[in-house]
Design goal:
24% strand; globular; Rossmann fold; single chain; 206 residues; alpha/beta; 40% helix
């Protein structure tokens, strides 16, 4: 079973680029959205892992940064000097201008309840950025595995990863996300990036 333990944390930067399509591009697009809210915007990165997004936000001059992850092993690799970090399954108390949830929500089974909590902790006119795995279609999976092969992932590792995430990842399709996000109360939902099996949404609260 897949776990974000010390072994994963020690090689997460290279692992992410091998297994997550458009990893750096999606982070850069997320930062561009954050720019719309100013350098003092209160931003939280949910599932912040080892802090790649937080580091890039800090390097761009953002000053009110927060990170939350349920793996202490991942948080131990984060630079504590640039952000307030919390080890938790839920968001810390407070309201935020931007909530980033990249490659995290597909590990949560009850997305409806979780997204309602996210919506409630977002300031008016705030934004949520969500990147998730959104397809198990055989064609899409095949193309996604080709991406991994091109990044140097072996056939054995592809097979092992596929087995390890069973009953750990809860995949819902794009139509589900549009439906649940509108039901939760977001007035606008945009797709700003997509690749085989993966989609990035920007959701605005009015």
């Amino acid at each position: 079973m897949w776990q974000f333990d010390k072994n994963v944390a020690s090689s997460f930067d290279s692992h992410a680029r091998q297994h997550i399509p458009n990893y750096d591009t999606v982070i850069d697009k997320s930062l561009d959205v954050c720019e719309l809210y100013g350098k003092s915007a209160k931003i939280i990165d949910v599932g912040c892992a080892i802090g790649e997004t937080l580091i890039r936000l800090h390097n761009r001059g953002f000053t009110n940064l927060h990170g939350v992850d349920n793996s202490q092993s991942m948080l131990d690799k984060c630079p504590h000097s640039i952000a307030s970090l919390t080890c938790s399954e839920t968001l810390p108390e407070g309201l935020y201008d931007v909530i980033i949830i990249n490659w995290t929500l597909h590990f949560i089974k009850d997305k409806k309840k979780y997204l309602q909590n996210v919506f409630d902790k977002l300031n008016p006119n705030g934004v949520v950025i969500i990147s998730d795995k959104t397809s198990l279609d055989p064609l899409a999976i095949g193309m996604y595995h080709d991406y991994k092969r091109a990044k140097g992932v072996s056939e054995e590792e592809i097979k092992q990863k596929q087995e390890s995430i069973k009953n750990v990842m809860f995949i819902d399709d794009i139509e589900y996300y549009f439906s649940i996000l509108k039901f939760t109360g977001f007035s606008k939902v945009h797709i700003i990036d997509s690749y085989w099996c993966f989609t990035t949404f920007v959701c605005i609260k009015r």
